[in-house]
Design goal:
The chain is mainly alpha-helical. It is built from 24 helices and two strands.
Length: 450
């Protein structure tokens, strides 16, 4: 019996295998691009390391790719077999993986919460629950998890900065911006290369309209991102968002090509359709087009990848973004196929099926209607989904593009009640009034919204 980096018992063949596992774990919550290679080193050191096989399955599931489910099932089966004599904590982790792969992420979260009740320093359970709760639209549970385990952690633990980063993002999504910023900056003081902390503070600056600070924040931290995974693209998306608010669309397009999409990057080449990268790209191009900015042929490669993923409903929030690419390139037959798969969603994720049908489907239909100039229909089909749209997952900053879709449709359909409904909605959630925000200011002035 050996102990991991937080002192938890693990069943492995050697201390060297456990240290390699620790290295893989640091890579996971540190957003390192080489985490798969780190895990291979663990399994090379100890092919029978059951929890490492479980981690392999978890990492596959983090990609939200239906085609990868076979690999996740295989990892779960290996982990189940190899943890027969392991600790109960390791066996319960396998049960969480099995639940997730079977399409029951809420059950997986409940299992991770149970692990944390007995082992509050289990950083794997903590970070996975944080991730799934975020993509299920539950920032309150993200914050509850942080507040539950934090008193039992200390600054001496290797993952202390990761906990601070999660505290930052959870607080930001719950609207506690001052406390969020303090936690995020403390995490960066602890580790300047903590991408999740950099990301959390960027969200605070976005929500508070601190655009110059946001641009400087990303620029000053970029030197610490060598070896980082695709989250670095999302951080550059934030930088582009700050420039967009300033009206500097040439800089937005430059960042899109060089950093946000960056088709020359090994990360993009290895995971060309990773959900977060597709969301970054589609939402930015859509925002630019709403402002009348010509984006050239940039939609085409996104549409190719979206069309290839039709039928995969694992990531509900990504579906409207795929539709943006299909609609922008006039691929209406493919768009209709995408809608049909959402109407029949449920096979790969029973818990997500309702969210897909109630929210991703009408929002995607609105995207298509908007592209076809059917603005009244876009508003009508999307209006019932507004109140629960948060269940698609995604941050306030990410969900904003969907709200802009509704607003633009309402303006073009000349539906003043719906314009005011949307303006009131965003005014109630953000410190920055609509009149000071790109995508909202013109409508606010035109409709007398103070």
């Amino acid at each position: 019996m050996y102990r991991d980096l937080h002192g938890l018992a693990v069943t492995a063949a050697s201390d060297a295998a456990v240290r390699a596992f620790d290295h893989a774990m640091l890579g996971y919550f540190g957003y390192r691009a080489d985490v798969a290679e780190r895990l291979k080193a663990v399994l090379s050191e100890d092919p029978g390391f059951g929890l490492a096989h479980c981690l392999k399955g978890y990492l596959i599931m983090l990609g939200y790719n239906r085609a990868a489910l076979t690999g996740a099932w295989a990892a779960a089966e290996d982990a189940r077999r190899l943890t027969a004599q392991a600790t109960r904590r390791e066996q319960v982790h396998v049960a969480a993986l099995e639940a997730w792969v079977a399409g029951h992420p809420d059950r997986a979260v409940a299992i991770w919460d149970g692990i944390l009740a007995e082992h509050p320093r289990d950083v794997l359970a903590f970070r996975l629950a944080h991730f799934v709760n975020f993509w299920r639209g539950r920032p309150d549970l993200m914050l509850a998890s942080v507040l539950t385990v934090e008193p039992l952690w200390s600054e001496t633990l290797p993952a202390w900065g990761s906990l601070l980063a999660c505290r930052c993002f959870a607080l930001e999504e719950c609207g506690s911006y001052t406390a969020a910023e303090a936690a995020g900056r403390a995490a960066i003081d602890h580790d300047p290369g903590d991408l999740w902390a950099a990301h959390g503070v960027a969200h605070v600056l976005e929500m508070q309209g601190r655009r110059g600070e946001g641009i400087a924040w990303v620029s000053q931290l970029r030197r610490h991102w060598d070896g980082a995974n695709n989250l670095r693209h999302h951080l550059w998306w934030h930088a582009a968002m700050f420039h967009l608010e300033r009206g500097d669309t040439d800089q937005v397009l430059a960042l899109y090509d060089a950093e946000v999409r960056n088709l020359a990057s090994p990360l993009t080449l290895s995971q060309p359709d990773l959900y977060i990268d597709m969301q970054n790209a589609a939402s930015m191009l859509f925002r630019l087009q709403l402002r009348g900015v010509a984006v050239g042929n940039r939609w085409a490669e996104l549409a190719d990848k979206a069309e290839a993923r039709i039928g995969d409903c694992l990531s509900a929030f990504t579906l409207p973004h795929w539709m943006m690419a299909l609609a922008a390139t006039g691929r209406h037959a493919a768009a209709r196929r995408l809608i049909a798969t959402m109407q029949s969603a449920g096979d790969e994720d029973a818990a997500a099926a309702e969210v897909v049908r109630r929210y991703a489907l009408p929002v995607s239909e609105a995207v298509l209607a908007h592209a076809q100039g059917k603005y009244v229909h876009a508003v009508a089909v999307m209006r019932p989904a507004l109140g629960g749209m948060y269940r698609l997952g995604g941050s306030h900053a990410q969900q904003d593009v969907l709200e802009q879709l509704f607003l633009d449709s309402a303006v073009k359909a000349d539906l003043p009640d719906d314009v005011r409904l949307l303006l009131e909605r965003v005014a109630g959630r953000r410190p920055v009034p609509p009149g000071r925000r790109a995508g909202y200011a013109e409508a606010a002035r035109a409709y007398g919204f103070a």
